[in-house]
TrEMBL record:
Metal-binding listed as a keyword: yes
Name this polypeptide is given: THAP-type domain-containing protein
UniProt cross-references to PROSITE patterns, sorted A to Z: ZF_THAP (PS50950)
SMART domains: THAP
């Protein structure tokens, strides 16, 4: 089942009334490390299928430049493939 990797987020493909999209972790190592800091799950390694839902992104996920917000207000930018 597809679900969001952010702790406490209950969005899944089936439980998704707001129709959030799901974004896989970036391949770029620097961006990947930033996402890992935001997810903040010690001793966890995402699989190739791990995702973060668009609930945690700022703006429209259909455009190339996106930002992922953390609770600490850190903004991360990445390009979708």
């Amino acid at each position: 089942m597809v679900s969001c990797s952010v702790p406490g987020c209950e969005v899944t493909r089936r439980n998704n009334p707001n129709q959030y999209t799901f974004n896989r972790f970036p391949r770029n190592s620097a961006l990947f490390e930033k996402w890992m800091r935001i997810v903040n799950r010690p001793d966890w390694t995402p699989s190739t299928n791990s995702t973060i839902c668009s609930k945690h992104f700022e703006g429209n996920c259909d455009v190339c430049a996106q930002s992922l917000m953390s609770t600490s207000s850190e903004i991360l930018y990445y390009s979708m493939v």
